[in-house]
Amino acid sequence: MPRVGRGTGPQKGGTVIVLGLVLMLIGFLAGISILWTLGIIVLVIGLILFVLGSTGREVGGRKYWY
Known about the structure:
Shape: elongated
Low-confidence stretches: 1-10
Mean pLDDT: 77
Helix content: 55-70%
Number of strands: 0
C-alpha cells in the first residue's frame, strides 16, 4: 500500500540539483574554486539520480529517494 502524504521521489529530486546550482553560483561569484567543483559534482549526481528515478529504475535498492 503506498504511503499517503509523502513525495514520490522525482519531484523531490530537484533539491540536489538546486543545491549544486547554488554551490556553483556562490563559487563563481566568490572566486572559490572548490565550491565551483563541488557544485558541479553535486549537480551531476542530482541529474543522474533524477533521470534514473524518473524512469522508474530503482537506485541503490530504493525506488524513490527522499
